[in-house]
Every structure is written in C-alpha cells, then in structure tokens.
Write a structure and sequence with these properties.
- It is built from 2 helices and 9 strands, in the order βββββαββββα.
- A hairpin with a 2-residue loop joins strand 7 and strand 8.
- It has 172 residues and is mainly beta.
- It is found in: Secreted, Extracellular space.
- This is Trypsin CFT-1-like.
C-alpha cells in the first residue's frame, strides 16, 4: 500500500473527540483521547483493528518499539507526505525522569519514553503527536511531547497506553 497522504487511503470524519477527563495541559499528563468516527471502518489486507496494551502489559527497558506518523523528519523540516516509521527503544524511567528534571519537566507513571538515548538522530517529531508507538504489533504508547526532536538526552514522551486500558474500553 502506498503510504502517501494523498493516495491509497480513506478519509473518515470525526463524530466525537473524548479527551481524558483528567488531562493536565500544564504537565501534559493523561494526554490521550478517543476519536469516534462517523460510519465504520472497512477492514482488508491493509487495514485492521489495532491491539492495545492491556493494563498488565509489561514493557521492559531497552525494548524495540516502532513509531509511525506524518510528522517532521527534522526539527526545522516540514511534515512528511508519506507515512513514515522509525525504530526506537524504550528508555529506563529513572534515566529519562532525571534528564527531564534537569530542565524543569516531570515525567509521570502515565508516560513512556522512547528514542535513541545518548545517540539521538531518530525519534518522533512535531506532527507525530497522537500517533502510535508499537511493541510487537501492540499499541503501547501515543505520541505526546518531547524536548525538540531526536535529541540524545531527551527521548520522546508518549502516553503509556497500559495505564488507560480500562478508560479506553469504557469509552470506545
């Protein structure tokens, strides 16, 4: 399937957006929402329902994960015309919490960081927000925020899906 934003896809209109009830815009905690569409999805070889992490999904440190999106490929670049993907790794919570605290930002238990720690260069970026982070074909994160893009000391921050499983099921 062609990943171009202008071909090979289907546009769905949103009917309702359900933001998490305790989303905090100051800390960006609980940064997850459900989008209900008008109509239904048509599943085929290229489109299928995604599995989401259960509340007990145990995702360790340094696990390979994949992010997809149409976001920028560099901080000063523009969004991509093609759906892109990048392989990154989960980062130890104490490590990324310490790095972000050094610039006055906090990481909560509802967040999951991924990137190329101490290397940089590959990451989620502006325009990828709301997009999935996959581990073994299971959505474990939703792209939320970060300090710029692809910095060695500051991996991307995702909403940790396993913390929201019950809320997702009760609202979808």
């Amino acid at each position: 399937m062609d990943g171009n934003a202008n071909s090979g896809g289907v546009v769905h209109n949103s009917q309702q957006i359900i933001n998490h009830p305790i989303y905090n815009s100051r800390t960006v905690d609980n940064d997850i929402a459900i989008i209900r569409i008008s109509g239904t999805f048509s599943y085929n070889n290229n489109v299928r329902a995604a599995a989401i992490a259960g509340s007990n999904y145990n995702l360790g440190d340094n696990q390979v994960v994949w992010a997809t999106g149409w976001g920028r490929t560099s901080v000063s670049g523009s969004g991509s015309e093609n759906l892109r993907h990048v392989q990154v790794w989960t980062v130890n919570k104490n490590t990324y919490n310490q790095h972000y605290r050094s610039i006055g930002k906090s990481i909560t238990a509802n967040m999951l960081c991924s990137g190329w720690l101490d290397v940089g260069g590959h990451d989620q970026c502006y325009g990828d927000s709301g997009g999935p982070l996959f581990h073994n074909r299971v959505i474990v994160g939703v792209c939320s925020w970060g300090e710029s893009c692809a910095l060695a000391r500051f991996p991307s921050v995702n909403a940790r899906v396993s913390r929201f499983t019950s809320w997702i099921h009760s609202n979808s």
